[in-house]
């Protein structure tokens, strides 16, 4: 931490230059010297002397801030002193902080450190200063700076050290040029090695001095970093060559990166993605090409610029034409690798290529012999994984949390799917193991549902409760009275159901919203409890969505499929589709590509703690029309969204409708894309529409 005595507007400069590199810079200023610019700083502590010395006020404020135990090193300096942040950070990274020491420029007459060149105190020395600061009340000195210097010496009982653990506290004091300003003398000083490694340059006169010094030392540090990078690259190349000789394998590029991982089998071979400046071709089952936009566009644009810079630095005579091809692949150990094919135009002289035939040609014909040729260059680019950091440890999760399952039934056509879901749930309760965790099954019924259907659902719930008595299962039918019509989007109906459920059952439990068309296994509830974390994470599983049974061929048993000619089965399927016959599946719904697909755009089922839902609900508004509720949880710093493929959550096929008047255009696009892609696989549609001749 740096504590700066602010006496003028120079404090703004040291706050800007040092503050970018030091974890904390705090300014202390006499309130009588604070102008409008300094007064706007948030890291300023003003004080009134009231006849006391500056050190008494500053040390008292530091004690009240209770920060002496938060930092390993403390720098105390005046705002007229330039501190080189790069040298400072190297110093504190080199020295051991747990020894009491005060570093600085020793005064001539005694062992105190000079305040005008700054003082660096270790953590133990700072603790001594805070504990014994009352000893400074007996000091008598006319000058504030001298009193501050003697106070630190007396309270810490330490002499000033300019050399500690082999590290020197470098102060640059040199004759100035014709002008006393430092920025006029840098051109003369920069030839001195002592100036380039200086930590402190005192006696700044203006902001121009601070700015010029900082700009110079930034250039020095960049040159130093380039030299270090060059040394490191040479060392890495040497080590890579030695390893290649020992292992017999080729040298990997870039140096120090491991080679591409060898896939364990042919199914896990990494796929290269092809891209242009407008489109990207991904390896997806139902989509061949997508527009290049967003982060992908930024990534490709940056890589193409880097590839062009490499080629044009080696061959400046080339004229760029276009990006011909681009490929990229991700490796978890290397990062992202690219192959960039660039097209250039080059002007050449035909005679230069055949000098023996052109020796006697006149100079007047040289221009007519010029021609343009197309040149192709391939550049390999690697974007290494950098700036990695460990994520904060996730909170502790208990698996015995209560879960309230909410099934919204917003229309009459959802009654039968909901009753089938309850029947499947009743069969899950027949397992011999007892369940000690409490689960509540709630069917949220909307006003448009017929009363006879509500009665039937109530009877099913009673039967479910009777069968699941050993499982501590509770059941309830919840009448919902939404503020807007339930016909205005599934997201609106889901929000209305959860609103009433949280009001009735409280906000301390996990709420699992299920589509009436869902088909779940018992393990799904266990994963819901583990993946839903209070004040931390909501769980949006990626369900397995069933294809249209008529198109996918699941309306016939395997025996019927073998006995029925292909053309006859095709005509029968087309006839049922034309007549609008409700499909009836005759095979078990299993997780296979012929039966359906994992739909990453389906957000109809999710789990959230009631208190987190209440906090996120305000972001949606009271009467907004939506197709799902994922927007409420996106872009929040405190709540994470977990998405994971969930084979035990399956969505039965049903006619899906999208609210085209949703307030969110992305919500509409997501719903429409999901609806189209969940009809059937491409090969199934092709077999249905095109017959072989």
UniProtKB/TrEMBL annotation:
PANTHER family: CHONDROITIN SYNTHASE, HEXOSYLTRANSFERASE. It is an enzyme of class 2 (transferase). It is a single-pass type II membrane protein. This is Hexosyltransferase. Belongs to the chondroitin N-acetylgalactosaminyltransferase family. The keyword Plastid does not apply. It comes from the Eukaryota. It is found in: Golgi apparatus, Golgi stack membrane. InterPro entries: Chond_GalNAc, CS_glycosyltransferase. Its main location: Golgi. It holds the Pfam family CHGN. GO terms for cellular component: Golgi cisterna membrane.
């Amino acid at each position: 931490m740096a504590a700066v005595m602010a006496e003028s507007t120079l404090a703004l400069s040291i706050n800007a230059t040092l503050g970018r590199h030091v974890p904390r810079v705090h300014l202390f200023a006499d309130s009588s010297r604070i102008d409008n610019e300094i007064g706007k700083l948030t890291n300023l502590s003003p004080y009134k002397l009231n006849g006391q010395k500056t050190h008494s006020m500053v040390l008292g404020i530091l004690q009240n801030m209770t920060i002496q135990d938060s930092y390993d090193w403390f720098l105390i300096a005046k705002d007229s002193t330039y501190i080189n942040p790069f040298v400072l950070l190297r110093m504190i990274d080199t020295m051991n902080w747990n020894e009491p020491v005060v570093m600085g420029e020793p005064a001539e007459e005694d062992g105190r450190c000079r305040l005008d060149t700054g003082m660096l105190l270790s953590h133990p020395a700072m603790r001594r200063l805070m504990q014994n600061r009352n000893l400074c009340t007996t000091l008598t000195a006319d000058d504030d700076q001298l009193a501050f210097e003697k106070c630190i010496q007396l309270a810490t009982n330490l002499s000033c050290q300019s050399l500690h653990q082999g590290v020197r506290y470098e102060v640059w004091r040199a004759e100035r040029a014709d002008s006393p300003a430092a920025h006029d003398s840098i051109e003369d000083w920069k030839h001195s090695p002592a100036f380039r490694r200086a930590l402190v340059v005192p006696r700044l006169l203006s902001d121009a001095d601070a700015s010029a010094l900082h700009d110079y030392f930034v250039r020095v540090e960049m040159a130093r970093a380039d030299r270090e990078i060059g040394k490191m690259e040479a060392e890495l190349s040497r080590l890579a060559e030695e390893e290649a000789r020992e292992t017999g394998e080729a040298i990997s590029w870039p140096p120090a990166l491991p080679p591409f991982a060898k896939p364990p089998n042919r199914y896990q071979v990494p796929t290269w993605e092809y891209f242009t400046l407008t489109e990207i071709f991904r390896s997806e089952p139902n989509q061949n090409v997508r527009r290049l936009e967003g982060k992908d566009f930024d990534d490709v644009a940056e890589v193409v610029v880097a590839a062009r810079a490499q080629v044009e630095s080696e061959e400046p005579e080339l004229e760029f034409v276009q990006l011909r091809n681009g490929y990229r692949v991700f490796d978890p150990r290397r990062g992202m690798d690219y192959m960039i094919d660039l097209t250039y135009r080059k002007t050449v002289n035909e005679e230069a290529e055949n000098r023996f035939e052109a020796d006697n040609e006149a100079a007047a014909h040289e221009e007519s012999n010029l021609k343009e040729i197309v040149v192709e260059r391939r550049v390999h680019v690697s974007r290494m994984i950098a700036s990695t950091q460990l994520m904060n440890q996730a909170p502790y999760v208990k698996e015995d949390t209560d879960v309230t399952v909410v099934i919204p039934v917003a229309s009459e056509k959802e009654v039968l799917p909901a009753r089938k879901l309850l029947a499947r749930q009743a069969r899950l309760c027949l397992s011999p193991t007892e369940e000690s965790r409490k689960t509540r099954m709630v069917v949220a019924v909307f006003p448009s549902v017929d009363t006879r259907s509500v009665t039937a659902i109530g009877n099913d719930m009673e039967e479910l409760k009777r069968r699941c008595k050993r499982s501590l299962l509770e059941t309830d039918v919840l009448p919902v009275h939404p503020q807007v019509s339930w016909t205005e989007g599934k997201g609106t109906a889901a929000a209305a159901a959860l609103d009433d459920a949280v009001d009735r059952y409280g906000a301390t439990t996990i709420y699992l919203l299920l589509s009436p068309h869902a088909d779940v296994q018992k393990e799904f509830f266990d994963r819901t409890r583990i993946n839903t974390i209070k004040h931390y994470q909501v769980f949006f599983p990626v369900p397995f969505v069933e294809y249209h049974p008529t198109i996918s061929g699941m309306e016939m048993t395997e025996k019927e499929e073998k006995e029925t000619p292909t053309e006859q089965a095709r005509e029968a399927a087309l006839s049922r589709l034309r007549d609008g016959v409700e499909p009836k599946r005759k095979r078990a719904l299993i997780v296979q590509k012929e039966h359906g697909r994992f739909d990453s755009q389906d957000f109809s089922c999710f789990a959230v703690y009631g208190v987190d839902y209440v906090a996120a609900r305000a972001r949606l508004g009271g009467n907004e029309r939506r197709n799902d509720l994922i927007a409420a949880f996106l872009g929040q710093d405190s709540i994470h969204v977990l998405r994971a493929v969930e084979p035990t959550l399956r969505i039965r096929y049903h006619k899906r409708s999208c609210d085209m008047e949703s307030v969110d255009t992305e919500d509409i696009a997501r719903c429409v894309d999901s609806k189209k892609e969940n009809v059937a696989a491409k090969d199934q549609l092709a077999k249905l529409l095109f017959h072989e001749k």
